[in-house]
Amino acid sequence: MATIKDIATQANVSPATVSRVLNNDATLSVSEETRDRIFDIAESIGYKPSRIKRMKKESEIASKQIGLLLWISSEEEKEDPYFSALRLSIERACIEEGTPVARVIRGSQVDSLTFQGMDGLIVVGSVDIDDIETIFPNRGAVVLVNHLLDIPGYDSVKLNFRQAMEDVVSHLCEMGHQRIGMIGGCEYLYKLGPVKKGRPSHDIRQVHFERLLKERGLYRPELFVTGDWSTASGYEQMKRLLAASERPTACFVSNDPMAIGALRALHEQGVSVPDEMAIVGFDDIEVSAFVNPPLTSVKVYPEQIGKTAVHLLMERFAGREPVMQVTIGTELVVRESCGGKK
Questions:
Q1: Could you say which DSSP state residue 273 is in?
Q2: Segment 204-222, tens digit of pLDDT
Q3: Which of 63, 64, 79, 246 has the smallest count of CB within 10 Å of its CB?
Q4: Could you read off the pLDDT of 151-165 as tens digits, one per residue?
Q5: Helix-strand-coil split of the chain, %, nearest 5
């Protein structure tokens, strides 16, 4: 019966090295040539063939180079904790799979050499698909995360915005609101390189929110305003709504940083929340539970989104062929800012 010592003798390495290679020890520093030689010898002399076949596949996957591409800058990431949570969840999931992210790339940093040597790519945000195909044409090794569009031929992970907006509108209507407004965000298909913003696109939240209000006969376009996703923008957009001839009695805000800015504007102008205006945010970042009043928000699950994206890429490395598009659910967390807290 073939043994580890037999493999070590033929490979001209120590038995300990053979054992660590066969067990895919990520802390072992050994060349790919040596690693391949050990697996080839183990197969040739019949060392536990079924186990070797499985472990060789795992070793091949562990050696893959993964790039993580984010359209958002590090400064913008600090403004919205959701994106940092999502990035960290992807990085952790890759480490758990034994294939740490080799390179984190911001959209403005991309050039023709950026993705040389990369075996797979996870793209966070709505990057123009033409740009992605130019820099990384292997679409079978790309996972799109939170992309605005449904792109044929690409694995993707996105949120169930339709259900999220149904939950928000249903709750506000149950609370008796008839004048419902929205502070939305400007969406773009982002370009790679120094010219960041490409074609403007719709905020998917707003698309579903408008549709649901129209179905109930409650849509009032004058109560819809758009900002740039920042806290300061939420503040300014809420001041616009407060200056209108007829204010909304409830307002959905497309992310929590903007909602926090909106709350500040309401406090400054003495508008009672939720008695005079109810507020609902989106993302349920940690600080949302600690503002005054605590913010009702749509909870998303960046940890699950990140794990799912990495899992899809690992499946591709393992040979999966069909495209998979995964939708992650959300939950409306009801707090004092919109009334009806359970």
A1: T
A2: 999 999 999 999 999 999 9
A3: 246
A4: 999 999 999 999 999
A5: 45, 20, 35
Cα 300 to Cα 46: distance, rounded to the nearest angstrom = 49
Which stretches does DSSP call E strand in 38-95?
Answer: 66-70
Residues in contact with 116: Cβ distance below 8 Å, sequence separation at least 6, in sequence order: none
Beta bridge partners of residue 105, listed in sequence order: 69
Question: Under a CB-based contact definition with an 8 Å cutoff, are residues 164 and 205 in contact?
Answer: yes
How would DSSP label each residue in 88-138?
HHHHHHHHHTT--EEEEEEGGG--TTTTTT-SEEEEES-B-HHHHHHH---
Average pLDDT rounded to a whole number, residues 161-176? 97
| Residue 27, pLDDT above cutoff 80 | no
Q: What is the DSSP letter of 191?
A: P
Do residues 71 and 126 touch, judged by C-beta distance below 8 A?
yes
**Average pLDDT value over all residues in the chain:** 89
Contacts of 325 (CB under 8 A, 6+ apart): 150, 155, 156, 157, 158
pTM beyond cutoff 0.90: no
Adjacent-strand bridge partners of 68: 104, 122
